[in-house]
Design brief:
By secondary structure, this protein is α/β, with parallel strands linked by helices. It has 9 helices and 14 strands. Helix 3 packs across helix 7 and helix 5 packs across helix 7.
Length: 260
């Protein structure tokens, strides 16, 4: 188990993972439900999801995703305090903890678990879904009906925060935690950040949606990174890992892929 690469791609339609009622929810919620159901189309004890606005620019070592003990790392984002964004994410933690009927302690301190390449442990993800079902019923996603995508509503739900609260507050064995650094994820917040990027990180997140893929590819090529755009048909892609012992990867949305 050395690295995660991009191999053959199988397309999975949204409708196969969403009910008719869930399909009427705003896209921001639909893509999160799909990620929470990644285990329905992926095998293995550990699997990863890639955001639709994220690129893999270099081979990603499995050691950066999974500990030697076999548990996936839970990445957290750090900020200088006080931080408006950290305060926002902590409100999200409180909101999802309420949905789960849990008092957040460690998860509230860490706060921000938003990641562009997130690895789940199957047992913890199943425990998350089971707890939601036990509290809110089999059709637990009904709690999302009537919500929009305003900042106030978005801070009340988050798939990664849900998982993190269960992993840190309820799981018998806490996950290993790592700080997400620039060497792991390159965040392209603006054209200025693109102009300064050297593409040393394996994961690239297009925060500024105004940045075009060909601009990113042109800049990446200066550093020997060849970006390969994938289909943009708006459907999910199931991406098997490079070898049988690597975590399998699920990419909701049209995620370009890359090789180096």
């Amino acid at each position: 188990m050395k690295s995660v690469g991009m191999a053959d791609v199988s397309v999975v339609a949204d409708e196969s993972l969403l009910s008719a009622r869930e399909s009427r929810l705003p896209g921001w919620y639909r893509q999160q439900i799909i990620k929470l159901r990644a285990g329905e189309v992926l095998s293995g004890d550990t699997f990863c999801v890639v955001s639709g606005d994220t690129l893999l620019a270099r081979t990603l070592p499995v050691t950066s995703l999974v500990s030697l003990a076999g548990s996936p790392y839970l990445y957290v984002n750090r900020y200088r305090y006080p931080s408006v964004h950290l305060s926002y994410e902590r409100r999200r933690v409180r909101a999802v903890a309420e949905l789960l009927g849990v008092t957040p302690n460690t998860s509230l301190i860490l706060g921000d678990f938003i990641s562009d390449f997130f690895c789940f442990e199957r047992s913890t993800l199943l425990a998350t879904i089971e707890r939601l079902r036990r509290i809110h019923g089999a059709e637990w996603t009904g709690v999302l009906e009537g919500r929009d995508t305003s900042p106030a509503d978005q801070e009340r739900f988050g798939e990664y925060s849900l998982y993190a609260v269960v992993a840190l507050e309820l799981a018998g064995r806490r996950p290993p935690v790592r700080i997400c650094r620039e060497s792991h994820v390159l965040q392209l917040h603006s054209r200025r950040s693109l102009e300064r990027a050297r593409f040393e990180a394996p994961i690239v997140h297009l925060v500024d949606k105004g940045i075009k893929l060909d601009e990113v590819a042109e800049r990446a090529a200066l550093f020997g990174v060849e970006l390969l755009p994938r289909s943009e048909d708006g459907r999910e892609a199931l991406v098997p890992a490079a070898d049988e012992t690597s975590p399998s990867t699920f990419a909701p949305g049209a995620t370009p892929r890359a090789r180096s």
